[in-house]
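Notes to self after the Tuesday call (sharing in case useful).
The group wants a holo model before anyone commits to mutagenesis around the pocket. I volunteered. Ligand is pyridoxal-5'-phosphate. Logging inputs and output together so the record is complete.
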Amino acid sequence: MPDISPVFFGAPMLPDPDHLAALMAEALAAGWLTNGGTLHMRFERAITENQALGDVASLTSSGTMALTLALMLGDLPRGAEVITSPISFAATTQAIAGLGLVPVFADVDPETLTLCPGAVEAAITPRTAAILPVHFLGVPCDVAALEVLASRHNLWLVYDSAHAFGSSIGGVPIGNFGDASAFSLHATKLLHTAEGGFVVTRAGKADSLRRMRNFGLEQGRVTGVGLNGKMSELHAAMGLALLPSLFSEVVARKALRQVYDRSLAKLPGLRLHTGGESVGGGTSYYSLRLAPSLRARLHLALAEEGIFARDQFPFYVVLALLGRTPRSSLSRAGPPLRPVLRLRFFACRCMAGLRLRLPTGLPRQSLPFAWPHQRIHGNEIDFRI
Ligand SMILES: Cc1ncc(COP(=O)(O)O)c(C=O)c1O
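Result:
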């Protein structure tokens, strides 16, 4: 029986309610609601095992908080410049400005819509202290070139990975690049905790980050700057309750991305938004670039099918309205790009009855989540929906 319920952009993945209730009951029985309870520890460990490849993931209260803490970890001087992408959600630049740092925009690559390393290099001044690129809509940045720039100019390199859970480069999970990588676990993301986020840091930095997310406290004493960036037990319960279906959801979405790419590649007026063949595409959104004349028609046609997509506009229009961006950095960002239409994945409807064998890109022992309709052969999965 096909699933014919409407598909809304940003509708959250929902857990088995009994599983969520059991986890919440565990927190209530323990009488421990926040400050590193057992659910928090379990979820943080699961994220670390799944995403951090030997590095450490630290949970936070939101993706914006993850960005803020990842920038704070760089100990950047007040008033320093941070080069970032003009095409993102407001939180990227708000995190910079909120810390008294100055956002400077560099242009994006027209294919990937992620920061262009050449444009970043041209924007570097003696006041530049950091680069904050965005894996926009899950398409990875040119991490190799950005890494070279950051180390040549001694810049703190933090990635905004809010859209990029499940993306990878050459089989390496996306969080493992730069000095730190900040993720959102907001309800619209693939894996979520209703509100939440996490930061993947490189070896040795997690203790500092975790101190800062808890008011700078260490053994009850304030030892430095900090704020309240912790995740509660109830939010961690939501994340844990979603884990059992996460792996199959990622595999389904990646397969669906391939189906969409194949089906849409040759249509006139459309341009796919991909990161090339060597990288795993994002799992939160599927995005297309359209001739403006097609946008309204496509919206209508999709709505008739019960699919409600959303436009993504260049971010600096929003920023200019907030009145926070210096004119000079706006003009450096170049002319507005065409809007991007984002479609949410709708795995159930499109994939019904499909049977696929997919390479996982992961060693077998690191496949963390069992799923009833999957059979694993070496590094491949026989997958049925
Ligand atoms: C690119 C980007 N960065 C940061 C954030 C902030 O995440 P959160 O809503 O969890 O604070 C978002 C939110 O969607 C985002 O799209």
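Two things stood out.
The first helix runs from residue 17 to 30.
The two ends are 12 Å apart (CA to CA).
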